[in-house]
Amino acid sequence: MKHTFLPSILTIFALALSIVISGLFSISVVSSVSAGEMPADKTAPDGFVSLFDGKTLTGWDGNPDYWSVQNGCITGLSTDANPIKYNTFLILKNVEVADFELLVDFCLTNHNSGIQYRAFMNNDPNKPWSMGGYQADIAGAPYMGIVYGEGYRGILCERGQQTTINKDGRPVVTGKVGDKDGLLEKIDLNGWNTYKIVAKGNVCTHYINDVKVAETIDEDDAAIFKGLLGFQLHVGPAMKVEFKNIFLKNL
User: Fold this and answer.
1) The sheet that has 228-233: what strands, in order across it?
2) What digits encode the pLDDT tens for the residues 132-186?
3) Which stretches of the chain are DSSP H helices?
């Protein structure tokens, strides 16, 4: 009895242990699949056109020392060995947007980037591929989601705010779209997210992961109603930013 009973206990214990380990493994696998992982390739939603073929930079123009396609993503990359000296952009060629909706999946690894829209070229011969205008900011906690004016009046709307820009060019808070810190909790700062930018008339609205994060009503005479699209690689520390599933709809 003793010799037959002991193996039975060991067998039961081993089985129980395997179940526990299996359960833990399953939990770890599930928990590793998060909203911040690289999204699959998507087809353009109804009414949208794709701006990226997933393989090449056809239709885009930027410094090839920093912009390429890697792993099916438009990739901006600066390194300690290959730094940039000023903000440089990958620009959608021969296309201007007025009233539009833009969808972009993005992932930032370190530092600062953004999506430039209704933008203008700076035309500085010492700074080719340099742009200004409205920007959907991609950065760390303080700036993620804000409406920024690149070379164009600075911060126009913080995350969580609705602002109105008056004739003096200064934004005034006229509403609230959410709590600044609470909205940040819905964004994966270390993984993939989806930007939606809607510009209609003088109203520019940013959404990240289908949540409104900022809105600007531009009543300044300097308001821009039509311009270029581009992605930013920011001067400073080494960084990497990736974009895919880029879809545009004119409104």
Assistant:
1) 60-61, 88-92, 228-233, 113-121, 131-138, 147-150, 154-157
2) 999 999 999 999 999 999 999 999 999 999 999 999 999 999 999 999 999 999 9
3) 2-32, 180-184
The number of angstroms, rounded, from the C-alpha of 195 to the middle of its chain's C-alpha atoms is 5
In 3D space, the residue among 235, 237, 18 whose CA is nearest the CA of residue 109 turns out to be 237
Backbone angles phi, psi at 60, to 5 degrees: -120, 155
What is residue 97's three-state secondary structure? strand
Q: How does pLDDT run across 98-140, given as a tens digit for each residue?
A: 999 999 999 999 999 999 999 999 999 999 999 999 999 999 9
What element of type H or E holds 233?
A: strand 228-233
Which residues contact residue 74 at a Cβ distance below 8 angstroms, ignoring those fewer than 6 apart?
Answer: 52, 57, 60, 67, 90, 231, 242, 243, 244, 246
